[in-house]
Amino acid sequence: MKQTERHARIIEIVTNSGFATIEELANQFNVTQQTIRRDLKELDNENKIQRFHGGAGLNSSTLNTSYSNRKVSFLKEKQHIAKAVAKAIPDNASLFINIGTTTEAIAQALLNHQNLTIITNNLHVASILSTKDNFKIIIAGGVVRNRDGGVMGEATIDFVSQFKVDYAIIGISGIDDTGDLLDFDYQEVRVSKAIIENSRNIFLAADHSKFGRDAMTRLGNISEVHHVFTSTTPSDTILNILDANNIELTIC
C-alpha cells in the first residue's frame, strides 16, 4: 500500500473510532511501529489528526466522538478496567457513578456485588444496575442528554450535593501532560465536580487513549483522586504526579 493510501486509511480509522493506537495501526497495515509514528507525525503536521501518547485521535477539543463509537472503542481495555475497579469496591458500599462508557462497563462488573447503594446521573448505569434485587439505585434529577443518557443541570448538582458516599467512580474524556482532567461539556463537568466533592474515595477509570487527549473544559487534576485505573503505564510526567501525591495506580 502506498503511503498516501495508508494516510487516507489512517484518517478514516481515527475518524470512525475516535482514537487508534500505534500498535493497532502497525498490525492493520503490516508495517513497523516506527513507520506509523512517521505517518502520524506527518498527518499531525498537516492538522489532519492529532498525535497522542501511544497513538492518534481527532484534533478537536470541543467535540467528543459519538456515543456509539465510544461504546465499542477499546472495549477490552474498558472491561479489564471495570473488573479491577469492581474488585476494589466492597459489598455494602455507597457509590457515585458518573457519565461515560467506561463507567457503564464498571456498572456491569459490579453486578456480582451485594447490597450496594448507587447514585448516578447516567441512565445506562441505572438500567444495568437495576437488575440486581439487593441494590438501591438512586437517579439524580435534571435534564437528560439524549445522545448518551447523561443527566445534567443545576438540579443534578443540588441533588448530588445532598449525599456523602464511600466511593466516586469517575470517567473522563482527556488527561493532559500536566495531569489536568478534561471533558467536553461544562455542565457534565460541574456535576462530576459535585460528585468528587461529596465522596470519601475517588476512583478515576480511564483507558490509555485518554492520556494526552485534548478537551476544552477542566474538571480538576489527577492529583486530586485516590486511585487511578488504566490500561497501560502512563508517561513519566503523570507517574511523577501520582508518586508525589501518593495516588495508587492499577494497570489493568
Account of the protein in words:
The structure is a single chain. The protein is 40% helix and 24% strand. The chain starts with a helix and ends with a strand. It has 252 residues and is α/β, with parallel strands linked by helices. The protein folds into two domains: 3-59, Arc Repressor Mutant, subunit A; 74-251, Rossmann fold (3-Layer(aba) Sandwich), CATH 3.40.50. The mean pLDDT is 90. Strands 6-5-4-9-12-14-15 form a seven-stranded parallel beta sheet, sandwiched between helices. Strands 1-3-2 form a three-stranded antiparallel beta sheet. Helix 2 (22-29) packs across helix 3 (33-45). It has ten helices and 15 strands. Helix 6 links the parallel strand 4 (94-97) and strand 5.
Proportion of beta-strand residues: 15-25%
Shape: elongated
Q: What is the CATH top level name of the largest domain?
A: Alpha Beta
Helix content: 25-40%
Report how far the terminal alpha carbons are from each other. Answer: 35 Å
| Helical run tally | 10
